[in-house]
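Request: Could I get any protein with tokenized structure?
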Amino acid sequence: MPVISGRYSATSGSSLPPSGTYRSSTLDRSYCGSSYITPRVLTHSRISSTFDSYRFEEPKKTYTSYQKYSKGLESVDTSRYRRSESRTRDETTQRERNDAVYNRVMATSAADIINKYSPANYVPKCELIRSRSLSDPRNMKEKSQEPTRERISSIRTTLPITTNSRSNSTEQDKQDKNIAGLNGLRNIGNTCFMNSVLQCLSNTRLLTEYVKNDSCCGEIGPNGALIKAFSTLICELWAPGSSRVINTSLLKSQVQKIAPRFMGYAQQDAQEFLRYLLEGLHEDINRVKTKPRGITTEIDDNLSDSQKAAESWARYIRMEDSHIVDLFVGQLKSTLKCTICGHSSVTFDPFWDLSLPIPSRTGQVRLNQCLELFTKEEVLDGDEKPTCSKCQVRRKCTKRFSVQKFPKILVIHLKRFSPTERFRGKLNSLVDFPLNELDLSSYAANQGTPCVYDLYAVSNHSGTTYSGHYTAYCKHPYTHEWHEYNDSRVSSISARNVVSNEAYVLFYELSNHHSSHL
């Protein structure tokens, strides 16, 4: 359900309104013991036969017999009183009999319910986790067949519970570890773009461990509502036990405060949401509580490129320093070369993701081709001519990008939507990207720098520029198994199905044996 902003691309997303269903429980039915409910509403044959023996018994005709043999009586008021008294007595007797039957029925029902929801008969849902659909609400039993936490608690207070053996507890712990991280997210109205991004971040091991271990608590600033909501959501997604569906309303309300563009339930773009979310989390845990005045002086042009890069990064960290920056932010080198005097000038800028162009509208391309097109030397002429720092006039120049500092988590955005392609539709080319050993050494500013990445998550978009749906493919950080996250549904997938023409945002983690070199 993407919406491409004016800065990046056109809008798209599902136009279907949010929908929901309510499944009634047998325990939610009206209380059958009320005297004004007739026995006919009960369908059990044994109960019905019992009711019939009382319901269809004809009442005594006391008032008729009295009327036949009391014509000579002079007091009409007395006869009316006696007829009313007799009829009331008969109706009271009948009601007492019916109430007695209802009491027996309700006692039987309560016993059945207690036996039905006994902990001894309860099978944890996590034992079914190896099925294909891990948290699909459509495969869940009716609410009346699944005891809630409140019902289990009430039963535990009245029934003895047999404790499991040590071996059973160990096996349960293993199952809890396997199921952790496999909870779905509720779509609260065109929010599949948000759910897709959140699942990708949830499977970002370095970020999840930082949040789950409460490492962020000491770094939260006074305005830390967003990071707290995000931490709560991550902990719910990774809570051990049976799979369930998590509500994202709290997090969405906090994102709306820092980015009003996400208010309401309009269709949005996943890459833009990711950028706003990461920047908002960064602000909440920025180690620089009071930002100093920015440095406006230019970096000495006589310094080497490496020294300029270090000075530029130090100036950035002086203002923006957080665990989010430690993980997601890299440094890009831009080289301008004057075609007249040959002078080269370099600038260094932080980047949160790499937005790569797709060279072909159809067919299949490799991710390396997208990277080569991104780092390819381009000519700046005409209105795009920059000012040469040596000639001091606007000159025709060449421009080239390279990566000076690689982040621990590399986010690659495939530009399937762009302002120039808005009326030509979405680029559905299949971009073949490696799941392991993505070597980016040839795109490094310092040749020979080892930088190899492994894929762990993909945000997918299916549909057109104006309507579609977001899902996520994520590799479990501990079991290393791939799963598809489709809002509330989570299912296992094969690694060979991860690469598709729906891939939109790729998440790579720097390999452990190469991280020490950066």
Remarks:
- The longest helix spans residues 76-116.
